């Protein structure tokens, strides 16, 4: 069985009930999530061995975060304990023309102040086939960036395939800082994943003729972006999700994959969104599943897009679908009829 390792932050998510605004809410719904943690849950649901690496406070809140992963079979044995707190984010879900809003309360979280000495890299990467991280983790702090670099060096020393989801977050760091840090980390990356903004915000590579606010997608421009990333960083594959934002409730959803010679374009899904947070993570995990199990590139891409289309219908950060459900949608059954 293939084993995937991820490194990152898991946070406490506090979201307003339904579509209430922050100023309306008298309570919050609780769950746990974070880019790399979300990927582990999805990959476990597809039948792979997964291992999540982070640092959480040695208290009941930290343990609750760990328990949220264990219930899906994620290996949490290398999670470090210590630090003052678990990061929190607040979510107000948008609808129609009103966008969703996220407020972070994650400064000085345990993982942001962790060092390489907190982790046993040889044990962490023992038997691993794949290592995944996102641009969110090195954005947390200088020490988190150094921790990410140490993990990448350890993974590469064992010949492990590495993927990154660029995941630029303007509330965490500037474009200049992101470019400086991520450029160094890209030396260790084999597969680069992003969305319509990431390449531009992190590396200054823009998809010409595309307007994400108007829902306009230029596929040829994305292929050119992928070519530039491959030439600049010598990665093997570049994937980009293509989100056409008609409103906060309705999106077009597809993706493109480029291997340096040929581009692969997925089927497009028209989504009615229940919760879009974690949509990119579900795409990344779907693509990792396809690639690590050696599906043909087109099939791996279709699996990733179908999986992430389903995630948009599920509340919470994580994608609670099985491999069989993804394959059913890939096969063309998106009718939503009751399964009896």
Automatic annotation (TrEMBL):
<dbReference type="InterPro" id="IPR011611">
    <property type="entry name" value="PfkB_dom"/>
</dbReference>
<dbReference type="InterPro" id="IPR052700">
    <property type="entry name" value="Carb_kinase_PfkB-like"/>
</dbReference>
<keyword id="KW-0418">Kinase</keyword>
<comment type="similarity">
    <text>Belongs to the carbohydrate kinase PfkB family.</text>
</comment>
<dbReference type="GO" id="GO:0016301">
    <property type="term" value="F:kinase activity"/>
</dbReference>
<dbReference type="InterPro" id="IPR029056">
    <property type="entry name" value="Ribokinase-like"/>
</dbReference>
<dbReference type="Pfam" id="PF00294">
    <property type="entry name" value="PfkB"/>
</dbReference>
<feature type="domain" description="Carbohydrate kinase PfkB">
    <location>
        <begin position="1"/>
        <end position="318"/>
    </location>
</feature>
<keyword id="KW-0808">Transferase</keyword>
<protein>
    <submittedName>
        <fullName>2-dehydro-3-deoxygluconokinase</fullName>
    </submittedName>
</protein>
């Amino acid at each position: 069985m293939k084993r995937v390792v991820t490194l990152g932050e898991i946070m406490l998510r506090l979201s307003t009930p339904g579509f209430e605004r922050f100023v309306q809410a008298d309570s919050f719904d609780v769950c746990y999530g974070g880019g790399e943690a979300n990927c582990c849950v999805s990959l476990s649901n597809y039948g792979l061995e997964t291992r999540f690496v982070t640092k959480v406070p040695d208290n009941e809140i930290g343990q609750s975060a760990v328990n949220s992963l264990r219930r899906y079979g994620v290996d949490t044995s290398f999670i470090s304990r210590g630090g003052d707190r678990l990061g929190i984010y607040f979510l107000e879900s948008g609808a129609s023309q009103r966008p969703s809003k996220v407020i972070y309360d994650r400064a000085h979280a345990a993982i942001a102040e962790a060092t390489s000495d907190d982790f046993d890299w040889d044990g962490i990467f023992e038997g691993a086939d794949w290592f995944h991280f996102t641009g969110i983790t090195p954005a947390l702090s200088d020490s988190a960036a150094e921790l990410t670099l140490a993990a990448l060096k350890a993974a590469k020393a064992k010949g492990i395939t590495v993927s990154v989801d660029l995941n630029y977050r303007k509330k965490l760091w500037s474009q200049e800082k992101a470019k400086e840090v991520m450029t160094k980390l890209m030396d260790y990356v084999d597969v680069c994943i992003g969305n319509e903004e990431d390449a531009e915000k992190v590396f200054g590579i823009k998809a010409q003729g595309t307007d994400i606010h108007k829902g306009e997608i230029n596929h040829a421009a994305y292929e050119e972006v992928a070519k530039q990333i491959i030439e600049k960083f010598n990665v093997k594959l570049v994937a980009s999700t293509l989100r056409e934002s008609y409103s906060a409730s309705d999106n077009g959803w597809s993706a493109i994959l480029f291997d340096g010679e040929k581009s692969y374009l997925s089927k497009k899904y028209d989504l009615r969104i229940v919760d879009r947070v974690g949509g990119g993570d579900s795409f990344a995990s779907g693509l990792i599943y396809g690639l690590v199990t050696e599906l043909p590139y087109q099939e791996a891409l279709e699996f990733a897009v179908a999986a992430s289309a389903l995630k948009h219908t599920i509340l919470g950060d994580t994608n609670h679908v099985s491999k069989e459900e993804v394959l059913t949608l890939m096969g063309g059954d998106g009718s939503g009829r009751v399964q009896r």
